[in-house]
Write a structure and sequence with these properties.
Elements (H helix, E strand, L loop, with lengths): L13 H9 L3 H11 L46 H10 L12 H10 L2 H29 L6 H28 L3 H10 L1 H17 L9 H26 L1 H8 L4 H32 L5 H22 L9 H18 L16 H5 L25
Helix pairs in contact: 3-6, 5-6, 5-7, 5-8, 5-9, 6-11, 7-8, 8-9, 8-12, 9-11, 9-12, 9-13, 10-11, 12-13
Bound molecules: fe (ii) ion (2 copies).
Length: 390
């Protein structure tokens, strides 16, 4: 089964992970240098201030590359300073699908004839929240984050991520259109429903704070804010809110309802697990390379604000209970997953002692191999080498 903490199996020894990262993967760097027979170090800049190559300068040295504020030529992929980023890119390309590949016919029947009013309320609001969120996620990575990266192997995965966020938006649109929901009403709902608006506003505030052309990440305050914003998007927005956002639909799927939508969400969730894991790794690397010290109060405030918003959201979408899934389940699962993300970030657990409420979620979210999958699809979802989520 997919390891949600470490989807690519890159950190098989979590206890030593921090030490490894402090030395910036010395084995990988040394091996890469040996293989490429790099010249003697030089202090000369390898690119001008705009990142353009300078004629006559020595080749890019792996040890000069930086996640941000680097001066190496951003148009040159190798040598890899961050080979794990390339691994994320290769793996992301194994999860390729389009929403048209999944049969939604039964979902139309389920929505019209089987879902209760309360379940329709859940379904519509989950879609409404997610579709607005995925556009925000796309804008964050594509417009605010990518331009600040100074190692192309990071940007290449993020370019794939931008594409995937657009695919996710298409997927929600496909569900909304196929089920026959009122598009203008669904898409406008985040402006009307305070409990959805609140979560969107939190993300918008973070995004707007790093989406300015005058940001200088050599400024400690700006750098600190950028790290907090990226940490929020990877650790909370994608790592908790998206992750948790799909679970009400998976609970319907468990009861044999809205299975097409749930299958779409399984594909999206695979992407989002990688997005969160990649973003968390980048954030940790920025912290190490730049000696960033996050204020514990800023982190605590982030968790508290996001928890309060999730509580309100859960109590809205599940104001009337549905079978097999409650607001309390949703809220506790947010806290449980938040602890998981905090551990990945080497932060204290924000909600210590919380147990997993949805013990079925990880299993339900996985695309099971025994399923007669290709009957309902026009293309294979996987190309290239073997995709192992076990
Ligand atoms: Fe997404
Ligand atoms: Fe994402």
């Amino acid at each position: 089964m997919l390891n949600w903490d470490d989807p690519l199996g890159l950190n098989t020894k979590p206890a030593t992970q921090v030490e490894e990262e402090k030395t910036v993967h010395p084995q990988t760097v040394e091996q890469t240098l040996d293989a490429l027979n790099q010249p003697e170090p030089t202090t000369a800049p390898l690119a001008d201030s705009a990142g353009a190559p300078v004629l006559g300068q020595p080749p890019v040295r792996v040890e000069d590359k930086r996640v941000i504020n680097g001066l190496t030529d951003v148009n040159q992929l190798a040598p890899f300073r961050y080979p794990w980023a390339w691994e994320f890119f290769l793996n992301a390309n194994k999860n390729h699908w389009t929403p048209l590949d999944i049969n939604m016919a039964q979902d139309v029947q389920d929505y019209q004839h089987k879902l209760t009013t309360e379940e329709r309320h859940v379904y519509e609001n989950v879609l409404s929240y997610l579709t607005t969120s995925d556009i925000l996620a796309m804008r964050n990575i594509g417009l605010a984050v990518m331009e600040k990266m100074t190692a192309p192997e990071l940007q290449i995965y993020q370019a794939r991520q931008v594409f995937e966020e657009a695919m996710h938006t298409w997927t929600y649109q496909h569900c909304i259109e196929t089920i026959g929901l009122d598009q203008s009403e669904i898409y406008n709902r985040y402006r009307v429903v305070p409990e959805i608006n609140q979560k969107i506003q939190i993300a918008n505030r973070r995004l707007n704070s790093v989406l300015r052309p005058d940001i200088d990440l050599n400024d400690r305050d700006e750098l600190n804010n950028f790290v907090l914003s990226y940490l929020f998007f990877a650790g909370v927005f994608e790592g908790c809110w998206f992750y948790n956002g799909f679970s009400p639909i998976f609970s319907l799927q468990r009861r044999g309802l809205m299975k097409g939508t749930a299958e779409q969400f399984q594909y999206i969730m695979r992407d989002e697990v990688l997005h969160a894991s990649f973003g968390i790794r980048v954030v940790k690397q920025i912290i190490l390379e730049n000696d960033v010290t996050l204020d514990p109060k800023d982190i605590r405030d982030m968790w508290d604000e996001c928890e309060a918003a999730e509580v309100d959201y859960a109590n809205y979408i599940l104001r009337d209970p549905i079978l097999g899934y409650s607001a309390e389940d949703h809220i506790n699962q947010f806290r449980f997953v938040a602890n998981r993300r905090a551990r990945q970030l080497n932060l204290d657990e924000p909600f210590p002692g919380v147990e997993c409420t949805l013990t079925w979620l990880d299993e339900q979210a996985n695309i099971r191999k025994e399923k007669n999958f290709f009957e309902t699809r026009v293309t294979e979802y996987q190309t290239g080498g073997g995709l192992s989520w076990d």
